[in-house]
Design goal:
This protein is mainly α and 62 residues long. Helix content is 56%, strand content 0%.
Length: 62
């Protein structure tokens, strides 16, 4: 199994554009650090195998 590492700089650049905000270098670096930490904490949960028979959550459609 290969591990994919998100491209946080690209993600942040896209979010800055979409949200119409501009981050300075210090804030951008801190966000990249925090996103990496969050991804590290989430990795074991995301790797947990789920039984194929489990029901998926419903999807809201307006």
């Amino acid at each position: 199994m290969t591990t994919q590492h998100p491209d946080w700089p690209a993600y942040l650049a896209q979010m800055e554009s979409v949200l119409g905000v501009t981050l300075d270098d210090a804030r951008r670096a801190e966000l990249q650090l925090q996103f990496s930490r969050i991804a590290g904490m989430a990795a074991p949960l995301m790797a947990l195998p789920l039984d194929d028979r489990l029901e998926i959550a419903g999807v809201y459609k307006a």
